[in-house]
């Protein structure tokens, strides 16, 4: 299995696998599951709530049987997406400023990636106040809770970074946050 994206080593896209949103297998466009004779579809070609699953080899990763499943499951998507965004996509540089919207698994992984790359200011933005302490453990240096502000988030970010962040990551999955994330960047 190879395509120009896979061979380049610079992309997470694949012409062979693509992004399957129809809930069927890549190989033959069918589902492997049924209940009472009716098909049960996958989400994005995975079967997260199945005891057993049949997947394309390009969608499987071998892990050590000694790894605790309640921890390794985070690596399948959130951690790799966050670290990959900080290291491979943005290529966060030493001494830079970073703002992260959403401190779930993806956002915390971005923070950890930025910290490991040497970012000097890592701002976490989340409406859950409990994320402030959690963020510190992953490298967040400053925390903003938009629910507690009287001014737009981007103004606070620009004040904290002397003009705007060098890198901005939207890790909420909310298209409404994208414009705020972009407006938080340096001009």
UniProtKB/TrEMBL annotation:
Q: Which UniProt keywords apply?
A: Metal-binding, Zinc
List the SUPFAM superfamilies hit by this protein, alphabetically.
Answer: GroES-like, NAD(P)-binding Rossmann-fold domains
GO term, biological process aspect, one? formaldehyde catabolic process
- Residue stretches making up the Alcohol dehydrogenase-like C-terminal domain: 106-185
Gene Ontology CC: cytosol
The reaction(s) annotated as catalysed by this protein in its Swiss-Prot or TrEMBL entry are: a secondary alcohol + NAD(+) = a ketone + NADH + H(+); a primary alcohol + NAD(+) = an aldehyde + NADH + H(+)
Record GO terms (molecular function): alcohol dehydrogenase (NAD+) activity; S-(hydroxymethyl)glutathione dehydrogenase [NAD(P)+] activity; zinc ion binding
Cofactor dependence = Zn(2+)
Q: Does the keyword Zinc apply?
A: yes
Annotated coiled-coil segments of the chain? none
Top-level taxon of origin: Eukaryota
Q: Which PANTHER family match?
A: ALCOHOL DEHYDROGENASE, ALCOHOL DEHYDROGENASE-LIKE 6
Indicate the quaternary assembly: Homodimer.
UniProt protein name: Alcohol dehydrogenase-like C-terminal domain-containing protein
């Amino acid at each position: 299995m190879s395509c120009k994206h896979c061979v380049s080593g610079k992309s997470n896209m694949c012409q062979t696998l693509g992004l399957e949103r129809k809930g069927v297998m890549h190989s033959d466009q069918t589902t492997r599951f049924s209940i009472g004779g009716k098909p049960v579809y996958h989400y994005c070609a995975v079967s997260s709530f199945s005891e057993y699953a049949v997947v394309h080899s390009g969608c499987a990763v071998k892990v050590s049987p000694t790894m605790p499943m309640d921890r390794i499951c985070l690596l399948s998507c959130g951690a790799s997406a966050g670290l990959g965004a900080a290291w491979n996509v943005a290529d966060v540089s030493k001494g830079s400023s970073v703002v992260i919207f959403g401190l779930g698994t993806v956002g915390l992984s971005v923070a950890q990636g930025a910290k490991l790359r040497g970012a000097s200011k890592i701002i976490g933005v989340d409406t859950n106040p409990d994320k402030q302490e959690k963020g510190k453990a992953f490298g967040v240096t400053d925390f903003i809770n938009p629910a507690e502000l009287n001014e737009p988030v981007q103004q606070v970010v620009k004040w904290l970074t002397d003009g705007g962040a060098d890198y901005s990551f939207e890790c909420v999955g909310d298209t409404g946050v994208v414009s705020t994330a972009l407006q938080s960047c340096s001009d």
